[in-house]
Design goal:
Distance between the termini: 57 Å
Number of strands: 24
Number of helices: 15
Structural class: alpha+beta
Largest sheet: 7 strands, mixed
Strand order of the largest sheet: 18-19-17-16-22-23-24
Length: about 475
């Protein structure tokens, strides 16, 4: 049996999976935690990887390794390859003003056309602008900039020199200075962000290409950003939307053409297969369910049961779920609202149903934004903590109007990285086909009245 390893170096932890390269069968796993915070010294990622690999039984017997990881972060290295300062993670918002300034200087349309996305604080380019403005000494020492998964792959190779850094299309597309449409770096935009363009940037590899090896000779894949890794791990294909219901909501679609949304709603990323991965994020997802369960003083399981007891449309009761403001649509000061409360709908079941439908309608708005960019959407792959809700699974096709496929829970990013590692071994034009297990498909007749009613009241919220 030939084994491959996939790594997910996420914000919270490092996960390692070891799988059969031919069948994808899981052999063993391991994990270790990362420290909290929005800036972390990369040495912690290396330590967590070593712990996770040991917990997975070691990696000396694997034939190839690939690393997936959190997107966008900024890892600055000096000429000797030493870390200049702790890495700023994707969720570090201190560069929000830098993002606004870059958008004002060039214009949202120009950014979208250049790199597929309008700048937000998560993008590496904005963090480099912040560094140049607020820590000029660190900026002056910086000779190379890498992303989290780039740095970990480089460490796995022995870190011979900054000129050996590698990355992949998916993660490069989240920097703000690499174009998915042309598959090339935009050093003019790097210079605009940082004030100079003489930084060493990781070489962008093709999906199945390998130029680095571990010290014992195992090839290292190009790696991938977390969303691209999850799509690859799930076997998503053109026409699929991966809908992740976690703390936030993410809808990303495998597409055959790049997107350029000047509104900033859709981020035009690349995927890990040579295609594209336009992505929409919402702020309100699984915590809408948790908040409603708290309101009704019930468990999440009971909330699900209640929602399924109420009729479709909840008798006209609508929850607009902007409990933390919202990103899609861009309404940071919006508040949640409950509309249509009557004597008939003032029941726990109706409120529970309205919460599930409101959550799904908010995510459906994100899918609509993808469709508006010309993305084909035929089915939905539903993942994340919210997918554990029976009500969410059964109501989703009614609201979304498409078949909903729910894979068994797993480490999708690490699985995608493992699949890429197996791909490196074959050198084929397409990733190896691994049979997915535990898939359940939910289909139902769409109730268009649910979204119509939601649209009637969506803009009647405070801060809208």
């Amino acid at each position: 049996m030939t084994l491959v390893a996939g790594v997910d170096s996420s914000t919270q932890s490092c996960k390692v999976v070891v799988r059969d390269a031919e069948t994808g069968a899981l052999v063993r796993t391991g994990s270790a935690s990362h420290p909290d915070g929005t800036e972390v010294h990369p040495d912690y990622w290396w330590s967590a990887f070593q712990q996770a690999a040991e917990a997975a039984g070691g990696l000396d017997d694997v034939a190839a390794i690939s690393v997936g990881g959190q997107q966008h972060g900024m890892v600055c290295l000096d000429e000797a390859g030493e870390v200049v300062r702790p890495a700023l993670l994707w969720n570090d918002t201190r560069s929000a003003q830098a993002a606004a300034d870059l958008n004002a200087e060039l214009g949202p349309q120009a950014w979208a056309e250049a790199v597929g996305s309008v700048m937000v604080a998560s993008f590496t380019a904005t963090k480099l602008r912040w560094l140049a403005e607020h820590e000029p000494d660190s900026a002056a020492r910086t000779a190379a900039v890498a992303l989290p998964h780039d740095w970990l792959t480089w460490k796995l190779s022995g870190a011979a020199g900054i000129d050996t850094l590698i990355t992949d299309r998916s993660d490069a597309s989240g920097t703000g200075y690499w174009s998915p449409a042309t598959s090339g770096y935009r050093t003019d935009l790097l210079e605009r962000a940082f004030g100079r363009a003489d930084l060493v940037l990781p070489r962008v590899l093709e999906p199945a290409e390998a130029v680095l090896h571990t010290p014992i000779g195992a090839p290292l894949g190009a790696g991938c950003g977390d969303n691209a890794g999850a799509a690859l791990g799930l076997g998503a294909r053109p026409g699929d939307v991966v809908l992740s219901i976690g703390t936030s909501g993410v809808a990303c679609a495998v597409a055959d053409a790049p997107t350029a949304d000047a509104s900033g709603t859709v981020a035009g990323f690349a995927d890990a297969t040579g295609r594209y991965l336009p992505l929409v994020a919402t702020l309100n997802a699984a915590r809408v369910l948790a908040a409603t369960a708290t309101l009704l003083d019930v468990s999440l399981d009971r909330l699900s049961e209640l929602a399924l007891e109420a009729p479709s449309g909840a008798g006209g009761l609508v929850l607009v779920p902007y409990l933390e403001g919202e990103r899609t649509p861009n309404r940071p000061d919006a508040k949640g609202a409950l509309h249509g409360l009557t004597l008939a709908t003032a029941t726990p079941a109706h409120i529970a149903r309205a919460a599930v439908e409101g959550l799904l309608c908010g995510l459906a708005d994100g899918i609509d934004a993808l469709v508006a960019q010309g993305v084909a959407v035929e089915r939905v792959l539903l993942v994340g903590g919210g997918a554990r809700s029976e009500a969410v699974r059964r109501i989703a096709p009614i609201v979304l109007g498409r078949p909903v496929v729910v894979p068994e829970p797993g480490e999708y990013v690490a699985d995608g990285a493992a699949r890429q590692a197996a791909w490196v071994l074959t050198g084929a034009t397409e990733a190896p086909t691994w049979k997915a297990g535990g898939i359940e498909t939910f289909e139902a007749t769409a109730d268009t009245a649910v979204r119509q009613r939601y649209a009637e009241v969506r803009d009647l919220t405070e801060g809208a």
